[in-house]
Design brief:
Order of helices and strands: HEHEEHEHHEHHEEEEEEEEEEEEEEHEEE
Radius of gyration: 37 Å
Strand content: over 45%
Helix content: 10-25%
Strand order of the largest sheet: 11-9-15-21-20
Amino acid sequence: MKRIFLFFIGYARLLLAPCDADAVTKMCFELKIPVFIGRAGKYRGTDVRGLTVKLSDIKTLHRILDEAGISPLRERRFGVPALFSRYKLRFGIFAGAILTALSLFLAGKFVWRIEIVGNESVSDEDIIAQLDAVDFRLGTYIDGVDFDEMHNVLLMNSENLSWISVNMRGSVAYVEVREYSAGSGDAGSERSDGVCANIISSLSGTVTQVSVREGRSTVKIGDEVTKGQLLITGVMEYTNAPTKYVYAEGEVFIRTERSFTVTVPLKTEILVETDDVIREYGIKFFSKEIFFGIGGSIDTSFYDTIIMYGDVDLFGTVKLPVSVITVTHTKSECKSVTLTEAEAAAAAYTEYHAAFIEATEEAELLAYQTESGMNEAGDAYVITCVLTVIADAALTLEFEVTP
């Protein structure tokens, strides 16, 4: 904090002989002039001590030195006043400083970069095109955007997004989206003329709940159904009226069993990273990536590639549309190993936990049973799991009706 204060008010640093420094310090103390004594050192082979004083006291210090007949070996001035004094005739520097300050102020007012997350089937280019259609693009003035209204317009105009949110962090727009899930009915029942749908079962099991929003159910609670069976029909037949075709929507929850098996052999091959590491670097300016290559291609079948982007910002607040790209290629090689039973079991349970999470994703777990141990041949560790779950089995199957 003391150094920052001195930088703004300006200070001078003098190099004196050690005996002169002690005498000057004593005289400054008597006159109540604050000085700061530095460590002993050498200057051009001579022992010296550093003496730091505020620029506002430099004239008084020079008078003390003249009266004592002491000449400093070197004097240098630092801080904002010294910079102004040194460059006061160089108007280009001040103009550049003003332009830089103005650029930093304006930088946080415009969109310099757009980052999109949450999309899988919809490409970044498609989402950027949808944003561009509502006048949100690189260079857009942030304060002039009504984000709530923009979100509503985007959702009304989009055929493949069910939710979108644009959040600004400095000059970077982080766009988070949710896509329509295929067959989930998120897109609503209003489709183009002639397009209707049935809902069939994606699972086999016992019906536990039926919810119909459009169409007519063909099953009831307690029915046993098989995979591919019709659950909700979009063909509405009437005794005294013509048949009506609709886009069926709803959920049918089924109690079903799922099972999986994990096998880890004792003799196996694993990928081991080597010391063969290749790095290349690049920069990303807006959406353009420029790499400073290594002069050849990398065989990705033998190298694992990790790409890291480092954002560039000013003073930790204004993010620039520039990222430093570091690409690390690490060569891996197959190595034959023989695992102990404990090591094979640990590896098997790692795979088991991942498979368990996948088997219960978007489903309600009722019960499960697990068996584990070495197989009969004694060359592999095996885990078998049978789960009982309740899951939505509704799968939309579209069809066209011709007049």
